[in-house]
Write a structure and sequence with these properties.
1 helix; mainly beta
């Protein structure tokens, strides 16, 4: 190998390491805690203002990783206008730490339960197999946290992705029947054109709190938002009835998350 080739490889390695260090240093958004600490980097209790002498420090990761959520009416609506309406929702899950450096950027083991669910088209209740009338339970879900918009700004908008876990049956979000089996509905990947994930804005960012709010919205089969900032990947539900054609669908729901300890979406 000639000298120029060796120099080129060395430079490439340096640039690669530099890029990795830069991305690691700015690997927001993530979950963590802003705690009082003499000599810390920050001067305020939300760790958004740096200064000396600092009295607060941001610690990556959650000590208590569990969370629950609860919300009111939830509506699953296809592009064609067919709706499944549920009167209430609850869920539970965990924040996920990955790698050797403590950092929480994902959730996993998320299971949502919808109650009071009906299919108005036939005026009948819906339920997941083995569950009570009107009760729909999702498969296990997981997903990352990322920017919807405003990365690097003072007003970032953060989103939480959810998608079926690798162990989810059929890689579906959920499957259920309405009217005692007259209509069987699947919600999942479908055509592969965006049915494997959904994004909801979550906030507030940069505030220590026991609570956060996720808001799912959309219309005409188009979820809002469908993408993360800087990503071309489209996240949008798809559903089908009785094994028919897959159709774009949206979820409308506002749900409040309650953490086991006060945490911050550090963005």
């Amino acid at each position: 190998m000639n000298r120029m080739r060796i120099v080129g490889l060395c430079l490439a390695a340096v640039f690669a390491l530099s890029a990795f260090a830069t991305s690691s240093a700015f690997a927001k958004p993530e979950i963590g805690r802003c705690v009082a600490k003499a000599g810390g980097k920050y001067t305020n209790s939300s760790c958004t203002t740096k200064g000396k002498p600092g009295t607060f420090e941001f610690l990556k990761n959650a000590v208590k990783k569990g969370f629950t959520s609860a919300g009111g009416e939830g509506v699953l609506e296809t592009a064609g206008g067919t709706k499944v309406i549920c009167t209430a929702q609850r869920a539970k899950g965990e924040y996920l730490e990955k790698g050797s450096t403590p950092s929480t950027k994902e959730v996993h083991h998320v299971v949502a339960t919808f109650t009071g669910c009906t299919l108005p088209l036939i005026g009948a209740p819906c339920n997941t197999a083995g569950k009570g009338s009107g009760e729909i339970v999702t498969n296990e879900l997981e997903g990352k946290m990322a920017y919807i918009s405003g990365k690097g700004s003072k007003t970032p908008k953060v989103g939480q992705e959810l998608k079926p876990a690798k162990t989810a049956p059929g890689k579906l979000f959920a499957s259920f029947e309405c009217g005692g089996g007259a209509v069987k509905i699947e919600v999942g990947q479908g055509t592969g054109k965006g049915g494997d994930c959904i994004i909801a804005p979550v906030g507030p960012a940069n505030t220590m709190s026991l609570h956060a709010t996720e808001t799912y919205s959309g219309s005409g089969g188009k979820q809002s938002p469908q993408t993360f900032e800087g990503s071309a990947k489209v996240c949008n539900l798809e559903s089908r009835a009785n094994g028919g054609a897959w159709e774009r669908a949206t979820q409308a729901l506002v749900t409040e998350i309650t953490n086991e300890e006060a945490l911050e979406i550090f963005a």
